[in-house]
Write a structure and sequence with these properties.
Helices cover 60% and strands 16% of the residues. It is built from 12 helices and 12 strands. β9 (421-429) and β10 (435-441) form a beta hairpin. The radius of gyration is 40 Å and the shape is flat.
């Protein structure tokens, strides 16, 4: 208690209190900001852990679903071990099935399974969706249902660790524990130094001047060191001691300076607003150009396929006429012009909206027409085309768009067999009384990593410059516009098969009615 008056005396100077106040406020703001950032990072890491573990659990469930035949428990255990070792935060993966209405562990990376995991698996199987447990310590569990042969098989229970979140909390507390005191000390010293140099000494000069005036020295003048707030006080004091007119002049000068500053800031605001409008227009133009580019590539692919086939027919006619024929020379000119048109089409900026299906169409006749159109390229590549057309009902379709979609598939098959092979087009009954079209080839096939994205725009198996990556995307859109579906299956090096299922005309009429 005896030291308290000395401490109060230490806090009496304005510069010390100002320094402490600024340091405290800044430290609180920065500390709160850092704490908030740590919590944001914690939430992000927690969400990332949940997303990762959910994806791993779904991947295990998908692995169980795609397995055919009796489930090999040794292979299942190896698969679980691979997933377990792939992600460090995973503590256990278990596959739980129902045996006599009771949950039972089918395979697990853990030596023993807790009752909570079995209960969570039962909840996931009952609700047919992912179920999370409450966090216990640094562990949490998630269970997702697993299917086999289109029936509920069991559930995948995954236990993962929250150690990374706890580590972030500990490190954040350590940083805050050191940062806040250090920030208070450093800021206090810095603000004290600045106020001592910029404020304290100059206030002392003003106080000394007023003391001299109080003693009758009207000639005393306060030194004006800088044109800031304290300089304005010193100038005002000097002008008050000299004459009122000087004070008025100084006051008017301050008004003019403030007006000029306000005018300058208004001008800056206007210029900033104009720049913002210009930037908004530039962004809008960029979005429009991106959309136009996508449309142009779409149309280029649609028109490019018929042009390639026309070029193939011209090549056949040239070979039939002989090298010295006048007709051959004219056909060469035609082929050159086709090449130019193809080049122009690839850069054109136009978009044609596909019309909706509108007339009954004989799929068998349509497929035969596609085969006839592709015949020159088939012969040129040495590809044998087998056609199997069964009796099927007509479909309501736009025959032009559907023909282009099938031609896309046939052209892709031919491109996959540059050294010859066998292509098969099969037309037969589909599900729900619809029509199924299969286009198969013995070409190079589709890589496993590309197969899930093969119908996405810009995805292509061809070399740069040989394809736009839009053909299958356009084909999928055409099939979808006709109320159908398209799927692909392939193994690299073993060819590919594309299956289109379309609703029959009668079925579509009933839906519309």
């Amino acid at each position: 208690m005896k030291k308290l008056p000395g401490f109060r005396k230490l806090l009496e100077p304005l510069r010390v209190r100002l320094a402490l106040l600024v340091a405290l406020v800044v430290s609180v703001v920065v500390g709160a900001s850092a704490l908030l950032q740590i919590r944001v990072f914690e939430s992000a890491i927690r969400a990332d852990l949940e997303d990762t573990t959910n994806k791993i659990a779904l991947a295990v469930a998908d692995d169980i679903e795609v397995r055919t035949g009796p489930l090999d428990h040794a292979q299942l255990a190896d698969s679980l071990r691979e997933f377990y070792e792939a992600v460090p935060s995973i503590r256990a993966i278990s596959v739980v099935t129902l045996k006599d209405e009771e949950p039972e562990v089918e395979a697990s990376t853990a030596s023993a399974e807790r009752d909570e995991a079995l209960g969570l698996a039962r909840a996931a199987m009952r609700r047919r969706e992912a179920v999370y447990s409450a966090a216990k310590g640094s562990l949490r569990m998630v269970a997702v249902p697993a299917n086999r042969e289109e029936r509920l098989y069991g559930a995948v229970v995954l236990t993962y660790s929250l150690d990374s979140v706890e580590q972030l909390k500990r490190e954040g507390r350590i940083v805050l524990g050191w940062f806040v005191p250090a920030a208070i000390v450093v800021l206090t010293l810095l603000v004290d130094l600045l106020t001592r140099r910029l404020i304290h000494r100059r206030i002392g000069s003003l106080r000394l001047t007023m003391q001299r005036v109080a003693q009758g020295d009207l000639a005393a003048r306060a030194p004006v060191q800088r044109q800031d707030e304290l300089g304005a006080v010193a100038t005002g004091l000097n002008q008050m001691l000299s004459e009122m007119e000087g004070f008025n002049v100084a006051l008017q000068e301050r008004v003019r300076e403030a007006t000029s500053e306000l005018r300058a800031r208004n001008q800056e605001a206007v210029e900033s607003y104009e720049r913002m409008l210009a930037l908004r227009e530039a962004l809008a133009r960029a979005d429009q150009m991106a959309a136009v580019g996508h449309m142009a590539a779409n149309v280029a692919h649609q028109i490019g396929t018929p042009l390639n086939l026309i070029s193939g027919y011209v090549q056949v006619l040239r070979e039939e006429q002989g090298p010295d024929s006048r007709v051959t020379r004219r056909l060469e000119i035609v082929q050159e012009q086709i090449a130019k048109v193809t080049s122009i089409v690839r850069t054109m900026l136009d978009h044609a909206r596909r019309p909706a299906p509108k007339e009954p169409t004989d799929v068998g006749e349509l497929v035969r027409r596609v085969c006839e159109v592709a015949r020159p390229k088939l012969d040129a590549l040495g590809v044998r085309l087998d056609l199997a057309v069964a009796e099927v009902p007509p479909v309501v379709a736009d025959p032009v768009q559907l023909e282009l979609a099938l031609l896309n598939l046939v052209t892709n098959s031919l491109d996959a067999m540059p050294s010859g092979g066998v292509a098969l087009i099969r037309v037969g009954p589909g599900g729900d009384g619809g029509v199924r079209i299969e286009v198969s080839d013995t070409g190079t096939g589709i890589a496993a990593e590309l197969l899930p994205r093969i119908f996405d725009a810009w995805v292509t198996t061809k070399a740069p410059g040989r394809g736009t990556g839009l053909g299958l995307s356009i084909t999928r859109e055409v099939v979808a516009a006709h109320g159908g579906t398209i799927a692909a299956r392939s193994e690299a090096g073993s060819g590919a098969t594309f299956t289109i299922d379309l609703p029959a005309a009668a079925a579509e009429v009933r839906v519309e009615n």
